[in-house]
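Record type: ASSEMBLY
Status: queued
Input:
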Amino acid sequence: MMLSLAIPSKGRLKENCHAWFAKRGLVMEQTVGARGYRASFAGFPEVEVMLLSASEIASALLEGDIHLGITGEDLLREEAPELKGRMHLIKPLGFGFADVVVAVSQYWIDVATMADLDDVCAAYAQTHRRRLRVATKYAQLTRSFFAQARISDYRIVPSAGATEGAPAAGTAEVIVDITTTGATLRDNGLKILDDGVILKSQAQLAASLTADWSAEARKTCETLLARLDADYPALASEFPV
Amino acid sequence: MAAFPYYDASALQALGAQATSILGLFGARGYVHEEPSVLQPAEIFLDRSGEEIRRRTFTLTDPSGRDLALRPDLTIPICRDAVRSDRKWPARICYNGLVFRHQPGEPNRPTQFFQAGAELLGLEDRAAGETEILSLTIDALRVSGLKDFSLRIGDLALFNALVDALALPRQWRQRLKRHFWRAGYVESLLYWLGHGDGTAKLPGTRAEIETLLDSQGDAPAAGRSRAEIVTRALDRATEAATLRLDPVISDAIAKLLDISGPAEEALAEVRALLKATGIALDPQLAAMDARLATLKSLGIAPEKVQFTAHFGRNMEYYTGFVFELWARDREGQVQVAGGGRYDTLLESLGAKQAVSAIGCAIRTERLLAAKAVA
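Status: finished
Output:
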């Protein structure tokens, strides 16, 4: 059985992945006739490379459909709030940096911290008789971060895209979203709370612990990780016995 | 207990017989038997119970896209109907039905169980309402055949009154009250107030705040009015200047929250600690004494009643007196009934003014299991 590795199929993440592997002597070659969704490393046919969307990679790792995958840590943590026994983060890759943050309108000059937001949530529920809405595509991350901050008077509104527009559009009062420079948030009149950084994310090489780890797949993985200067024993110690 | 319980003929028969006697008692005391539908609009629970309950509520979307929930309790839908159908107060309503709760991280706890309960809505005489519901709950266990059980009682109003007596800014008092039900957190807030170095800083005058607000360009109001923001910004500025609690007082309150034990001794401890802080909570303590007297008159031995100062229950809508009844099943102590006062719920469901409310709920399957051991 081959070792399967999924990498993002488009955008900056894809280019960064190609470059990252190339720097370590692994040059990716598109497989002929596979419509661009399969690839392999030159001279390393035991690894089957698949090109999937970044969020598909997170769920494929969780489902055990692939052995290894590269995607944003934000997506991995959102997909599996509890990683133990399901996924192992092998190595942060030094690209794809982005923060998952809590942001509110700059007009809310009385709100700078999560404690302020807690007060406002409670007051809002009393005054408006409904809970303050938080728009996000990171429902799990939001839930556990707000729980840590002891905030309960809010509700999550799932957002598919353009989350930063929700406060102006009136579909939510607060957002939890991903940002790299903060420019998009500022353009939309929003600010990040002082203690509102939920996760400092970057691209991660991760292994599924629920995939079918045959002896052969393990062997290939060990060889691959050695070439990538990544810690195989730490991963092996997490495999189910 | 299984995550997906299967009720066989004998289980159904036993539950049915028990329900008949409990509902018979409720009926004899003037409670009308009603039942809201199993599927409810999701927001009536989610807007009231917070993300904690949201995590435990099964929600689904109907084909038209409306968010629905399997009722995680019957109190909220019953109160909602009482408000919408414009009942005459006091209203006495009872129920017996299934509720549904997701049990995150606990795959062996049941996702559905029966609850029999009663709600007493709009009775102005609070002490009388508490006596009525306590007596109803205790008699419901007795009429079902459970003889041996103990009580745990507490009162959120006691803590609220205590916090109101503190020389703290309003926002901080509200914050302490709001988090009462979180063990540990309130203590850390108190410690910070007594021993911390007041870090809240914000510019001050109304003019400064108005100017700052005007300079925010096109930033969206995001659901809050200008007045709302100005008021809070002013509060926050005051707060920064006055945020201090005498460490003697903050330590005494933390100690007080730790008190738990046989009710009479525990309340004596509360009194002693309050005396040291110079705070008087006579009406609240008198109410507690009255409840103990009520329990005694209902034939509950004093050593069976435990008072826990830090007892707020984890359903966020309780506002005052709270109680739980415990018994022993094959595996150990188990809570068979509980209830309390929730004086703000009906208003939040649309009642034109505050409606006092108190209720109880009995976990009938646990009650059966406890009786099997006794």
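Annotation: Chain B has a mean pLDDT of 88.
Annotation: The longest strand of chain B covers residues 91-100.
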